[in-house]
Amino acid sequence: MTNRITEKLQQDKKLLSIYFTAGYPELNDTVGIIEGLEKNGVDMIEIGLPFSDPLADGPTIQESSTAALKNGMTTEVLFDQLKDIRKTVSIPLIIMGYFNPMLQYGVKAFCKKCEEIGIDGLIIPDLPVDVYHEEYQAIFEKNGLLNVFLITPQTPDERIQFIDSVSKGFIYMVSSASVTGAKSGFGKEQVEYFERIKSMNLKNPQIVGFGISNSETFGQATKHAKGAIIGSALIKHLNKNGASKLDSFVNTIRQE
Amino acid sequence: MSYNANEKGYYGEFGGAFIPEMLYPNCEELRRNYISVMKEDSFQKEFHQLLKDYVGRPTPLYFAERLSNKYNTKIYLKREDLCHTGAHKVNNTIGQILMAKRLGKNRIIAETGAGQHGVATATVCALMGIQCVVYMGEIDIHRQAPNVARMKMLGAEVRPAKSGSKTLKDATNEAIRDWINNPVDTHYIIGSVVGPHPYPDMVARFQSIISEEIKWQLKEKEGRENPDYVVACVGGGSNAAGAYYHFLDNTDVGIIAVEAAGKGIHSGESAATSALGKVGIIHGSKTLLMQTQDGQITEPYSISAGLDYPGVGPMHAHLFKSGRGEFISITDDEAMQAGLLLSKLEGIIPAIESSHAFAILEERKFNTDDIVVINLSGRGDKDLNTYIDYFKL
Ligand SMILES: Cc1ncc(COP(=O)(O)O)c(C=O)c1O
């Protein structure tokens, strides 16, 4: 079976991918948010497994993670919420989370469970590519999971090549040297970086993330990449509106 | 078996660099350079000059006669409490500020819990005229007001960490986030043998001056370089790493690590990581840490803010797992009594962190002719309020 991410990447369109923190704003919003996002034309979803110490995240995602944990979200609860997700949802689903909760669940058991549920990939910001390659790649691949790595404007070319060689889906191109939730708007520096990566002709397409919050930044990012990921902006929307009005949120991004 | 880090930063199964890709260039720059920079003659010269003239090294190795009589063994105190700023922390910050300068950095960030490492960092930044930002949990800022004031006098900016539990681990997260946002001009001075490779090894090397001195000082006093035991308290583990460093591979020297049991190991309010921790990842390092079954990092507790860390450095995790180190945990009450006893018997008021190391003497018996070196990591000035409250002084 081909992976849903791989299939999606072959479509001739710019992809809108959305991150949200599972268990936020309410513990049991997870499935409703996923279904709502798909219904409104989102191409791919990153389901955030909350962690007590999210090093790579800015205040918005930190606060949503703290709230989700307070609501009672755990790895076990998330898997339970998602157990029938493939009955209603067909777009690619990625779990994004820090490595420690996966380590405690057991990496093998975690990957197996993901496959059972129909998860297509993982993004684990604090699992470096070399450790993945040496210790975990075989387990991930056995369970049909694509692991997605980040690159930044500071990542050396050689390392980008290595990441490209290990990756089998897409590369997560972090827009600037920052944690999530940075101010939006791309300057000359970012455009040069996007162009530089484009000219490397990597085998994996790139999807831009961090600092994308509206139709303007989505448009700028996807000029240079296959798609873009929005996270903090949706969390802010959820904070204001609860898990409703996803249509208006998605529409403002897609309009142009 | 070696008890030092291998070139990938592993101590046995512990250590490594589990960092987001955004931090890779920062850590890689440091990893590539730290050993060669430290080996430069000019670096060594400047480092040792500052340790001597500014920090006040060598610190004495003092034979504590009355304490020895009471416990019927031979006890030496390594007097890190006499370092400038009042604790061993400054050995590391002197080393790291020189490293930062050589790497061309012009901005320093640090985390602090009790404020000791923050003060030691602010101090060396003032000394070098370099901008300094210290992250400190919002709760700790209120608990440790005098150290906040010291950092401000020294010209540092103290930024409250408002995320998570608002204490040391969150201050560390904030410092790491700052480093992600400022990858080019900033050096992060970590305060203990924790964090991603190369930090645990680099900090241990800077602190290793402690055991280097113990060796020649003991030789002078006893005609032998090696004690029978070296005892130190372990928060993240930097004073302990420094005190053990040159004895690690000599198994004739017993290594005793003392952790904070808080209100009791199983009270739910404890920082005894070796007893309560499981293998996991904290602040970029694979080590033992206190966490829920679900892998969320939990908040430790100890009466001493400096031992209030949910993990231990990977060196110590390895010393524990391999059996090379003997780990003992001490409650708040035991530590406070030991602090009072040392004050009365030797005229030395220890930091409460260090009091934990002395408290083992009540239970852990040594032979009469054993030579036991206890690392007195800091002085008690900063803890006076806690002593006052506890003993109703
Ligand atoms: C006097 C003293 N001892 C010990 C510690 C614990 O740190 P470490 O375990 O890194 O030596 C601290 C930390 O603030 C301290 O101030």
TrEMBL record, chain A:
Its EC number is 4.2.1.20. It catalyses: (1S,2R)-1-C-(indol-3-yl)glycerol 3-phosphate + L-serine = D-glyceraldehyde 3-phosphate + L-tryptophan + H2O. CDD domains: Tryptophan_synthase_alpha. One of its GO terms (molecular function) is tryptophan synthase activity. Keywords: Amino-acid biosynthesis, Aromatic amino acid biosynthesis, Lyase, Tryptophan biosynthesis. It is an enzyme of class 4 (lyase). GO terms for cellular component: cytosol. It holds the Pfam family Trp_syntA. Pathway: Amino-acid biosynthesis; L-tryptophan biosynthesis; L-tryptophan from chorismate: step 5/5. The active site is at E46, D57. It comes from the Bacteria. HAMAP family: Trp_synth_alpha. Tetramer of two alpha and two beta chains. Belongs to the TrpA family. The alpha subunit is responsible for the aldol cleavage of indoleglycerol phosphate to indole and glyceraldehyde 3-phosphate. This is Tryptophan synthase alpha chain.
UniProtKB/TrEMBL annotation, chain B:
The modification N6-(pyridoxal phosphate)lysine is found at K89. Pathway: Amino-acid biosynthesis; L-tryptophan biosynthesis; L-tryptophan from chorismate: step 5/5. PROSITE patterns: TRP_SYNTHASE_BETA (PS00168). InterPro entries: Trp_synth_b_CS, Trp_synth_beta, Trp_synth_beta/beta-like, TrpB-like_PALP, TrpB-like_PALP_sf. Pfam families: PALP (PF00291). One of its GO terms (molecular function) is tryptophan synthase activity. The keyword Transmembrane helix does not apply. CDD domains: Trp-synth_B (cd06446). Gene3D superfamilies: 3.40.50.1100. Its cofactor is pyridoxal 5'-phosphate. It is an enzyme of class 4 (lyase). Transmembrane segments: none annotated. Keywords: Amino-acid biosynthesis, Aromatic amino acid biosynthesis, Lyase, Pyridoxal phosphate, Tryptophan biosynthesis. It comes from the Bacteria. GO terms for cellular component: cytoplasm. Its EC number is 4.2.1.20. It catalyses: (1S,2R)-1-C-(indol-3-yl)glycerol 3-phosphate + L-serine = D-glyceraldehyde 3-phosphate + L-tryptophan + H2O. The beta subunit is responsible for the synthesis of L-tryptophan from indole and L-serine. Tetramer of two alpha and two beta chains. Belongs to the TrpB family. This is Tryptophan synthase beta chain. It comes from Euzebyella marina. The gene is trpB.
